[in-house]
Specification:
The chain is mainly α. The protein is built from 2 helices and 2 strands; from the N terminus they run ααββ. It has a two-stranded antiparallel sheet. Strand 1 and strand 2 form a beta hairpin.
Length: about 70
Amino acid sequence: MKRILVQSPAFIRSARRILKKEPHLAGDVKATLELLSENAFQPQLRTHKLKGKLVNRHGLAVRATI
């Protein structure tokens, strides 16, 4: 079952900023979001719990070099 991903305005701004500097990452971002919608805890996403103000949320890696 695919999940519906809701992109916040902050995520959209951040993604635009990153992709403007490094447009070659567009495919990686798209692939990562597709994996995330299918299964949020796939090992290659390296999901992890966040702390502080973002407690009860999870982060993930788009690429190993980022």
